[in-house]
Amino acid sequence: MPEQKKTPIVMKIDQNRSIMYEKLGIGKSFDVGCRTMNILGHEVDLYYVNGLCESPVIVNLLRQLFQLNEGTRDDKSAFKHIYNDLAHQQVELEDTIEKSVTQVLSGLIAIFVEGEAEAIIVDVRAYPGRTPEEPDTEKVVRGSRDGYTENIIENTALTRRRIRDERLRNELIQVGQRSKTDICISYIQDVADPGLIQLIKDELEMINIDGLSMADKAVEEFLVRQGFNPFPLVRYTERPDIASAHLLEGHVIVMVDTSPSMIITPTTYFHHVQHAEEYRQSPAVGSFVRWIRFFGIFASVFLLPLWMLFVIQPDLLPDALDFIGPNEESTIPIIVQLLIADLGIEMLRIASIHTPTPLSTAMGLIAAVLIGQIAIDVGLFVPEVILYVAVSAIGSYSTPSYELSVANKMSRLTILASAALFGLYGFVIGITLYILLLARTKSLNTPYLWPFLPFNAKAFGQIIVRMSVPLAKIRPSIVHPQNNHRQR
Questions:
Q1: Mean pLDDT of the 53-80 span
Q2: Alpha-carbon distance 474 to 342, whole Å?
Q3: How far apart are CA 248 and CA 435, in angstroms?
Q4: CA torsion, points 239, 242, 245, 246, in degrees to nearest 10?
Q5: Distance between CA atoms of 375 and 369, rounded to whole angstroms?
Q6: Closest of 152, 140, 440 to residue 281, by C-alpha
């Protein structure tokens, strides 16, 4: 970001006041205010934003300021007395108008004293928001029920509660010339790769935009420069336990104020196919659940194209599988039926997002009737189409990462169209292009298919089988941790 012009605070409070009134829009914006007082014979201005400050704390601070007038103090040291006597844990000094304005608009208060070239900044933030609750997209049968919120202060506290290490660092920067959005970079100092930390800092500091209204998603697009690649290059989580586990592995977490989703970097394809539920069960149960999920993801991508291939080239079917349909004739080509049904389910998913909760059950019943038996009875679909499309849809819903499930759906449609047009050759070419795209993808210089490509047998084994915690003694090498050992 280009460096903002700095206006120093001067000793004449009237001059400071005119600039602050103009920049903050006091008198025009109803939610920004200034309280002018006389403390120890000096004019004092206190600037604040309603709704972002904790009013009882401000009232208590004002009471402390007025009590200074009751004592017999040297009126030539009013600034020193105010700074020393404020009963608050976070009091800082600023020497420029721009920084003071930014702090006020962030929910802090700025106190200007006549005859002083510095402002006293007191943190009295109380952002409106909800209480920590379990995220809807990452629910578990057993485990913690708290989740990140839109308050970056609460989010860092939820992480600190789980990692009480003095080497945990939460570095705060501001991005956006107008929004000045707070972004926190979290990492463990002696574990995370310094090169990765610096790379993320450099990418964030290069962001030159007026505002980040879409918060984490806008930051992601600047950070990884994804382009039109549909596969997610970062992992999102709203669970503090998942974020803490990745911090301990050597990952870097990017928190964006106003967003409950934490950005985990770097990530691979296999980070998106794991779920917290696997680690809340025994290793055997967790591995079983993981295998079922892998099967669902595999089916969501390849089941429809494979069945389409068998439909147009039934000679590829072995005798034991010759019952695979369609067993009924239809005037509508199978590929058209598959596309209509698959896109119809996607429309239902989109509709469910925008449907109010009280109406979602009714919408589900209508969808079941329309896309189910009635569609078959009128000859729009053959029964096998509904079956295989439904299995593919269930596989998509079993994918832990929403972003990956949508990317896989796009890949499925591409492979399906290729198989329908060119038969076996199209099917093979579609799968090859799918694998090549994944193999060529990198996230912050990290191979997307690691530990499959490049192959790492030990790490790949931990992907296939959920290892017990006592056996997971080494941190993943893909993050290049400074300290490889988790246990001694």
A1: 82
A2: 43
A3: 31
A4: -110
A5: 8
A6: 140
